[in-house]
Amino acid sequence: MAEFKDISPDAPFAVKAMNWVDNRFPATKLFKEHMSEYYAPKNFNFWYIFGSLAMLVLVIQIVTGIFLTMHYKPDAALAFGSVEYIMRDVPWGWLIRYMHSTGASAFFIVVYLHMYRGLLYGSYRKPRELIWIFGCAIFLALMAEAFMGYLLPWGQMSYWGAQVIVNLFSAIPFIGPDLSLLLRGDYVVGDATLNRFFSFHVIAVPLVLLGLVVAHIIALHEVGSNNPDGVEIKGPNAPRDANGHPLDGIPFHPYYTVHDIFGVSLFLMVFSAIIFFAPELGGYFLEPNNFIPANPLQTPLHIAPVWYFTPFYSMLRAITSEMVYALIACVLAGAVTGVVKAKVANLFKAVIVGAAVVLIAAMLMIDAKFWGVMVMGGAVIILFFLPWLDRSEVKSIRYRPGWNKVLYGIFVINFLVLGYLGMEPPSTIGGRVSQAGTLFYFGFFLLMPWWSRLGTFKPVPSRVTFSAH
Fold it and tell me: 373 with 172: CB under 8 angstroms?
């Protein structure tokens, strides 16, 4: 049991109150460890504001979600009307609803940018592998949360989007039909589905999400933050002052709290402008079809998920029967390369060949729809393995060969093109572009152990490069 700390009886009331709390709960200790005495690299740039913005949007979503559940009714006959009631009759209900719907898109924008920053500066490399894994798990939970929340307004796109996505699980051999039935709670998307999704959206997934966020932050503060140079400021050979603090670091508070407040201010100005002047953002944040009550008897002309799912939806649609043959060719090429290039025992080479044969046989026997689902899921799962796929000599893109920047730029453009094509109706040209984009997306990661080692690397400085601004 910790000893109680005594202070002067003449101390101000606030000091006495804080001392009373500290004797029972380590509030000051936690603040020092994670804020005022947590040293972060002094060369952070604007890319490092998106983590705090993600925290801000998470709080906005939780608070607005609580107020929305006060008036929302998870009943297939009443759900759409309850949303209209919130929008029209609840005081400031329209603002709360638009904050929540805009917040969903804002969440994905800042998370995508946050993940891309990690990709640029190698924030997933040793010793931060677990931070990256927790971050990818947050992204996966966020996708589940958004998908389930998208059904709740019970509009046309909500209903038919859920119908299409849940039906995809039926393509899984053996367990698919039962799994789809379990998710829906019925043979069609209906009242049981709405209640299940509401329960998961409001209670289950947010608890998982909050737990992962806490784990992500704890893991980050255990090993320290990365920086644009990829130089470890707290390593065994890092320079330190007389008090043991890293010379290339500064306390997170007050320096980066001010830095983040500035970023938050800019974000809130843009966020508020969208809420008040363009909450639907031309149909990207709120589709016109979702202002029509769900009708199981009338299918919309074009069913597409909301924008942040469309890159993965585009990959799903890209997997046709003929695309499966292209995937078989990739598996064959990978197996041949593994057998020829890998310096392993013949037994392991035989295993590679056997696995390739089994996989090719499965690809020929199982419907292309299943492989589309696998590709869509694999596009997210492959991110978890990034710390072991990147074999570059350096962490940061600053010190990698110049063509790496071009490659990363093409990766972003490819992802945006896939997102755009996922919103558009299927077409021959769009399908071909989606197929090429899908192959590039997976090739970027699967070939990373090879291309990340190529080229001439620039020398990494022993200390972070920093200029006052």
Answer: yes
